[in-house]
Design brief:
transposase activity, mainly alpha, Transposase, single chain, 2 domains, Transposase_8, Trp_repressor/repl_initiator, about 100 residues
């Protein structure tokens, strides 16, 4: 029978602490990894994710991410549908008024 391996779970705060400890430069990355008992590969993976998140957060507001483009397109579509609904509502009100006057 094989035992199921149990992995440790790190919070985002713990991951950030580990990465910052390695980035400070007062100790080597190898020493930081030994202290926290993680592999260097895992450390570099966390570091890359942290730096990518930082880049995204510091990107100019004019940067057009795919999500931003999608939100803008959806807002345009909602506005067009609202205008269309408004026109149809107005047409129904006119038709109702005309039918009341006709009878």
């Amino acid at each position: 029978m094989s035992e199921k391996r149990k992995y440790r779970q790190f919070t985002p705060e713990q991951k950030t602490e580990v990465v910052l400890a390695g980035l400070r430069g007062d100790r080597s990355v190898r020493d930081v990894c030994r202290e926290y008992e993680i592999s260097e590969t895992l450390y570099y993976s966390w570091r890359d994710k942290l730096l990518e998140g930082g880049k995204a957060a510091l990107a100019s507001s004019n940067a057009r991410t795919p999500e931003h483009v999608e939100v803008v397109e959806l807002k345009k579509k909602v506005a067009a549908l609202e205008r269309s609904l408004g026109r149809k509502t107005y047409e129904l009100e006119i038709a109702g008024a005309l039918s009341r006057d006709w009878t």
